[in-house]
Each structure stands twice: as C-alpha cells, then as structure tokens.
Amino acid sequence: MKFLLTSLLSFLASSAFALDVQQGVLPSTVSEVRAAEVKFNLPVKTWLGFLPGNDEHDPLHKDRKRSTLIFHHEEPKADRHYLIIWSHGMGGYHNFSSNMYPQMKELIRRGKSFTIVEPEMPWSCNVSHIDGRKSWSKSGSFELLVESAKKQVPMPRDKKLVLIVGGHSRGGKSIKDALVTGGLCRMNPDWFIWSDATYSKWLEQSWNACLKNIPDRVEIFYIKGTGTENSVKILKGDMHFDFVHVHPLGLPWYHGKVGDNVLLISEVLK
Prior knowledge:
The protein is an alpha/beta fold. 35% of the residues lie in helices and 20% in strands.
C-alpha cells in the first residue's frame, strides 16, 4: 500500500509539471526539452508553442515559424516573482540542458519565484542565413510577446512582479531591436542583463534609444580584451549613472560560460 501511494504521488507530481506542447512545434525541439526535463526533474511547468509577437512567418526557419519556451516556477514563500524575457545567442535555442535547466535548479534552491520566457530568435539553430536579421521588426511586437506570455502563464497576484530583459551574445542585438523598434521603451523594465552581448553598436544604440532613462539597474557582463569590452568603452563616459553596473570578466570565464551562468551571477537573483 505504501508503495502504491508513493508511486501515485510521484505520478501526480510529474503530471503537474509535464511539458505542455502546442501542435506544430519542431519535433527535435520537443525532444530536447523532454530530455532535459527527465534529466533534471525540476518543479517547473514548461510550455512550448507559438506566441503572438514571435510567430511571424519565417521563410528561413525549418518549419517556417519560430516557437517560444516558457519555464514557470512559483515559490509560495517568495515576496516577488521575476518575469525574465531572455534572448539566446547565435545558433542557440537547443541547449536547454546545458544552460537554462542548471540555472533554474539553483534559482529554485535559492527560493526564487520566476517565469523565464525564451523566444526562438531569427538566429536560432533552426534558421539558415542568420546574418543581418532583425528580431523585433514590427512596432509593438515585443510588447505583444510579453503580454501574451503573461496570459499563457498568469503571474502570481500576491507577489511583486519584477520584469527583467536580458540576452546572451547576439541576444544583445535583440535587446537593441526591442528598444529601437519593438516598444520596449514603453514597458519600463526593472532590470537589464547584457551577457557578453555588447557587440557592434548595440549598446550605444540602446543607450541612445532610452536605456539611459528607464531601468532600475543595467548589468553588463563582458569578457576582458574582446569586442564586447571595446563597445562598452565607447560609452564609458556616459555610463556614470549609479544604476549601471559593469562586470569585466577574465579567466576562468569565457563566452559560453557566461551564458551558462549569467542568471546566477546577476545581482538581481542572488
């Protein structure tokens, strides 16, 4: 009897956090997420499907349509809930097991309540000819994605909602696009995280768009002696504001390691 009760409780727990998949999502993506779920067995509700704001027709995608991942964990004792909109880097969206799941495991251990929204970007592993592509090309598309995600996974009403916008590597271009054309300036996020993502003029264009006016905190992580450091230096004179925190990283840190751990080393989630 005890064995049957234990088995039933285990089944109910696993069912409560089972992956919810919309029809039409690329089978390889579904398989990768399922494998990560089995490996880590976290109390996280996972939704995988198509959200308004990120479901535009994409002729370069294997299935002509990009999907979005949502990871949701509510911690009853937490007084705030973090809504994290995360843009992956070049060739990403398939490495859930190696980066996002270990980070979520640690966030749960820290007692954090969170929803992580990871839209598949135009430079994902499922897209060809990624150079020169723009993420939030339609005005208001980023706002639409965030509001759609909040409806898909309703936010807790008893906690303060903290909106975090971040990206790793080419995900910095996504932040820039969302600020310049996607309506992010109107959303007033609480926190920005640049995960070795300040290439080219992305940071400068973001700063001039409205980044200098809206957040409580901007965190910039970069690898010393690289292109991401050079772009930060361009704005060093302007970024003397108290809300800008720059984190230069040397060995043993490298580009991929930053992306695999940045949520854990960010000040907001400590």
